[in-house]
Amino acid sequence: MTKLTINSVKNSKIDHVNFNELPFGKVFTDHMFSCDYVNGEWVNPTISEYGPISLDPSARVFHYGQAVFEGMKAYKDENDDIFLFRPEDNFDRINKSAHRLAIPEFPKEFFFEGLEQLLLLEKEWIKTGKGNSLYIRPFVIATQPAISASPAEEYKFMIICSPAKSYYAGEVRVIFAEEYSRSANGGVGYAKAAGNYGAQFYPTSLAHKEGYQQIIWTDANTHEYLEEAGTMNIFFRVNDTLITAPTSDRILDGITRKSVLQLAKDNNIATEVRPVSVAEIKEAANNGSLKEIFGSGTAAVINPILGFKHGDFKFELPALTDNNYSSFFKKALNDIQYNLAEDKHQWRHKVTK
Amino acid sequence: MTKLTINSVKNSKIDHVNFNELPFGKVFTDHMFSCDYVNGEWVNPTISEYGPISLDPSARVFHYGQAVFEGMKAYKDENDDIFLFRPEDNFDRINKSAHRLAIPEFPKEFFFEGLEQLLLLEKEWIKTGKGNSLYIRPFVIATQPAISASPAEEYKFMIICSPAKSYYAGEVRVIFAEEYSRSANGGVGYAKAAGNYGAQFYPTSLAHKEGYQQIIWTDANTHEYLEEAGTMNIFFRVNDTLITAPTSDRILDGITRKSVLQLAKDNNIATEVRPVSVAEIKEAANNGSLKEIFGSGTAAVINPILGFKHGDFKFELPALTDNNYSSFFKKALNDIQYNLAEDKHQWRHKVTK
């Protein structure tokens, strides 16, 4: 393994940042990590000043979307210690995504050394206090300058960081998809492939025009089963049972999703992981047993959904009661993330070097 | 409309290029066209020296695959006149693709003025003689430096050019897809969206390992119907009838495909545009009525397929006879493209300024 080169900046730009007003993903820290794949190996792991990268216009990422990413967060406790949440799962998943996109896997040592050294350099950017975090974006792009439609032989792996408040501002209502789809059987829906996201923008913009913020995607064959929301997995609370779709090659294996399922088990909340039909959710809405819908994801953590629309059917979820699940899971997850609660499952990863 | 700025190079690199050995899409001409979308309009149309572009690592194309492209070719006749083939269709399609990817449409005047001025500057790169052409790659990428998962507000439109021989070297055999898929109903399969291509690389690499060069994708629901090959539409000749799948939201509306259908009509060749089942093609293979399979696309023009595999079923197409369709359509298309035949349908577009 090549040694990590660190070129740290002399003057941080942190004093120019208003941490009280942080739009998601627009402000980046002082440094970035990068590493190149050339001649069959990952080389030049480097932390340097955050700034533009130069690519040939024929770089394959521009033409064929050969690119994958991850989303992670770093949290700080009251002692200024920095924690990651289940980072090995992000590492495993970016390589699973990479594999499906014919991108060479990234070595674990590079990933963790690059990531942790970067976080230690940026520690002032991680503010204490619940809701504050540093959003971390590892990603890999095909850089080879050649437009033949085949896997590239050159790539760049990078990690960039953006200080964050919570991801969703305002109220979230959703449309259950009836026409557009996110992914096919045998496709790349389970991967954090760049192309999965851009493909959702247009249908989501149509939802916006109707006053809905997100779409819950349904299976492309029948549009009868609810799958995921593109940036979130989705949970339904019917009476006291928590229901979510099983992962598949169409649905992202969300780290927050599986943490919620584990916490439910730990707290004797009944769960059902099975196909969830639009029909049963509409019936549960009609008969009063549908208590909550919420999304789970790294950026959003837990995001309650206030209402949904399917065709002409519109429904407003009831007001959340004191024992609502979305607040319970959000608090339980945050308490672990911010080192405020016992970490039974070793999900917390302290950053120390 | 802002005026086109042209900064031409002083010294062409053309003398360093071996036109007898041109790998597809690796050699680029002296200039490129670019244009930026900022503050709600396309500005700065510029032709400048071909070279790297600089982007923020948070540019949305890297993360969300918000990118579309086109493939076109310029041809030269013996009088050194330059011709495009149905370029209005490429212009219409890049905007159709852009629309689906929530990318602002590109103005027609910019497209044609940028393209034609670029071609006139690069006229020495377009060699006479059949098989020689200049492959043209218009593309649009989301450049806005912000990783929120929503449509970008800033884009770059570019045109780059690469001198080309024919796209496919060697023999092409295909696998009919049984597990992996290219696109979903309600997805982006009909668009030339970057992510559609990277998603095919891994399954195609598995085909390569078995000695097959391409995959003919089947419908994601049942894998019973043959759709397209990712970089080519597909035609089957059964007895003397030419059969191809109808376009849909899963299948690219290929310009070569529709030109083949028109030429078939002009030449009294029976065509059927309808779903084509794997079962019927295997039956036709078994009973001797399957005469040819070929792909059509801008890069390949017409590419005969020598054999296919579906599960354990392997079939070698019979040797092409003198009246084979693939050679007929290739010659008919090339004759129009190279200004060697009458252009009944006004497909040829002479580049003159």
Walkthrough of the structure:
Chains A, B: Its cofactor is pyridoxal 5'-phosphate. Chains A, B: It is an enzyme of class 2 (transferase). Chains A, B: It catalyses: L-valine + 2-oxoglutarate = 3-methyl-2-oxobutanoate + L-glutamate; L-isoleucine + 2-oxoglutarate = (S)-3-methyl-2-oxopentanoate + L-glutamate; L-leucine + 2-oxoglutarate = 4-methyl-2-oxopentanoate + L-glutamate. Chains A, B: Its EC number is 2.6.1.42. Chains A, B: Belongs to the class-IV pyridoxal-phosphate-dependent aminotransferase family. With 353 residues, chain A is an alpha+beta fold. The first copy, chain A, has 2 domains: 5-164, D-amino Acid Aminotransferase, Chain A, domain 1, CATH 3.30.470.10; 173-337, D-amino Acid Aminotransferase, Chain A, domain 2 (Alpha-Beta Barrel). In chain A, 24% of the residues lie in helices and 29% in strands. In chain A, the strands form 4 sheets. In chain A, strands 1, 2, 3, 5, 6, 7, 8, 9 and 21 form a 9-stranded mixed sheet that branches. A 5-stranded mixed sheet of chain A has the order 15-14-13-17-18. In chain A, strands 11-10-19-20 form a 4-stranded mixed sheet, with helices on both faces. The first copy, chain A, is globular, with a radius of gyration of 21 Å. The model of chain A has no long low-confidence stretch (mean pLDDT 96). Chains A and B meet through strand 4, helix 1, strand 8, strand 9 and helix 4 of A and strand 4, helix 1, strand 8, strand 9 and helix 4 of B.
